[in-house]
Amino acid sequence: MKYPISGQMAGLCALSLLLAACGDSPADEAPVTEAVAPVEEAPTLADAVTNAEGPFAPKDDCGALYGFDSFRGQLRRAITFQNVDSIAALADPAIKLDFGGGAGVEELKKRLADDPELWGEMGDAIALGCAAQGDTAVTMPWIFASLPDGADGLSTYLVTANDAPVLAAADAGSESTGTIGWDLVKLAGDGPAADAEFIEVSTLDGATSGFVAAESLRPVSSYRILANRGDDGWKVTAFVTGD
Question: Closest Cα to residue 56, out of 197, 196, 156, 135?
């Protein structure tokens, strides 16, 4: 038995409409991607300095020095963008890099390439203030040139927080005996292991002692920047750590 052509066409149209309807079903829709909250960056040392309060909170004694603010701004930009050529242009050709003879702009470039964390060390040094030695020399951080008499640079730390808890033991869950902020402390026990989470310290006068989180302590002898102004303007003359 043959069906009329018009009936065949009607059947095909009906089938097409049915298939189209199926294609619009929720199962065939593109999956909805849930929004992902942006990852919050950890606060930097520069952030902590903004509201620093304490006996050794960073100070800036260098802002009035001729040409220094412009030089420091160039340093900050070079560090922010990790621009090796810019840092090289701001460094003295004989820049001192350690106490074993390491020196020179090419060596500085090599070290920055081998250890990118040095960019952060430079940024931290600048964030922690500036001490002026006359009109043509500066030290960053400020604290390195401002240690009180009797403080040992190799065993002294700067507390880099306003309210760092002082704990009775090297355990985050131990009892807190108080807080300490932007003060100088010295080692109270054996030297800490490289991966120690807490360090036993006491204030220089011995009035407060206990364990403080290592992340809230910066050795005074850690990386620092020295700069001098000469005939060709300000130049970084040393970027060193230790003593």
Answer: 156
